[in-house]
Amino acid sequence: MPELPEVEVVRRGLDPAMRGSLIEGVIVHDVRALTRHDGDATDFEANLAGRRVEAAVRRGKFLWFPLEGGDRAVVGHLGMSGQMLLRSPGSPIERHERVRFELRHPDHGELAVVFADQRTFGSLAVDPLLPTPDGVPGGVGSELACVPRQVAHIARDPLDPAFRDARFRDILGRKKSAIKRVMLDQTVVSGIGNIYADEALWAARLHPETPADTLSTRRVNRLLAEVRAVLEKALAEGGTSFDAQYVNVNGQAGYFAHSLNAYGRTGEPCPRCGRPIVRVSFTNRSSHFCPRCQSPASSTFFHAPA
Q1: Which CATH number does 165-300 carry?
Q2: 3-state secondary structure of 195
Q3: What is the pLDDT of residues 66-94, one digit of tens each?
Q4: Quick one: which of 211, 202, 235 has its CA closest to 5?
Q5: Helix (H, G, I), strand (E, B) or coil at 135
Q6: Where are the alpha helices (DSSP H) in the chain?
Q7: Residues with catalytic function
Q8: How many CB atoms lie within 10 A of CB 241?
Q9: In the list 12, 55, 82, 125, which could disulfide-bond 78, CB 3.0-4.6 Å?
Q10: Could you tell me where the beta strands, DSSP code E, fall in 22-122?
Q11: Which residue, 14, 29, 34, is CA-closest to 122?
């Protein structure tokens, strides 16, 4: 599933094309793409035709596009294989195309944005915007202090300027669950999935099953620093792509997969100590870690950065 870096790459690609664009038409090819929308395809199209898009915004793994007037937004979640692609007007239908937006930008003229989704777990919806409880911008990419109703329960992500480290530390102090499980809880911290959780835990020398409430303030601060470093590096490299499903708006894959230290490297030597990386089952997923650098014993005290 695309995580924060992959979704942010898409947001940055879409923003210059969508900001200020007029939606001249919407074509719904497959209603399965509207499972989160309160209405049918006709209602979805009618709610958008003639509206202007103000920006492309992201919180965690969610994208949204506020509409002029400030009352509603188009909300998108890429699911397992969703893509949002920039195309020329009148371009051929994409493989797995579900929805197409026909736009007119004040500077760039006519263009199309295509929502394609092979596995159909992604979704689009027109959703009301709600004020943020803290009165600050709801996500990255807009100064509007609002968030779509469907995203309101999602926590801020570590790259959001409004993310509060102290609040995160307080939550961890009340959680007896494994630290990796807490990191994947999108109501605690958003945008982190299996790949970047494994990478950040490896960098912080933390075993994924370490109880969250046993971590000292210093260890949590180190973990947050490593989470941000991993996400920023992945973002700079265009995200992680293992196949043709995770691409930017031009259909290009990211190359952070070449920088992974733990995830997907089962049996390969740990870049830090040389011990083989191991893989264990974890809630229908897998955890990848170094049994030496991230032993349960080593997770009880702080290591200086290598």
Answers
A1: 1.10.8.50
A2: helix
A3: 999 989 999 999 998 899 999 999 999 99
A4: 235
A5: coil
A6: 4-18, 41-48, 165-173, 179-183, 194-204, 217-236
A7: 2-3, 61, 285
A8: 19
A9: 82
A10: 22-28, 57-59, 62-66, 72-77, 82-87, 97-105, 109-117
A11: 34
Any idea where the domains of the chain sit in the sequence? 4-151, 165-300
Fold observed for domain 4-151: N-terminal domain of MutM-like DNA repair proteins (3.20.190)
Angle of helix 194-204 relative to helix 217-236, nearest 10 degrees? 130
**In a 10 Å sphere around its CB, with 0-12 CB exposed, 13-18 middle and 19+ buried, how is residue 243 labelled?**
exposed
At 262-284, the pLDDT tens digits run: 998 999 999 999 999 999 988 77
Predicted model pTM: 0.89
How confident is the model at residue 16, as a pLDDT?
93
The answer to whether residue 303 scores a pLDDT higher than 50 is no
Q: At what angle do helices 165-173 and 217-236 cross, to 10 degrees?
A: 120
pLDDT surpassing 50 at residue 305: no
Q: Reduced to 3 states, what is the DSSP secondary structure of residue 230?
A: helix
90 within 8 A of 166, measured Cβ to Cβ: no
Q: How many residues does the chain have?
A: 306
Q: Yes or no: say if 101 and 89 are a contact pair by the CB < 8 Å rule.
A: no
Q: pLDDT digit string (tens) for 45-64?
A: 999 999 999 999 999 999 99
Which amino acid is present at 55?
A: A
Number of H helices, E strands in the chain: 6, 11
- The pLDDT value recorded for residue 241 is 44
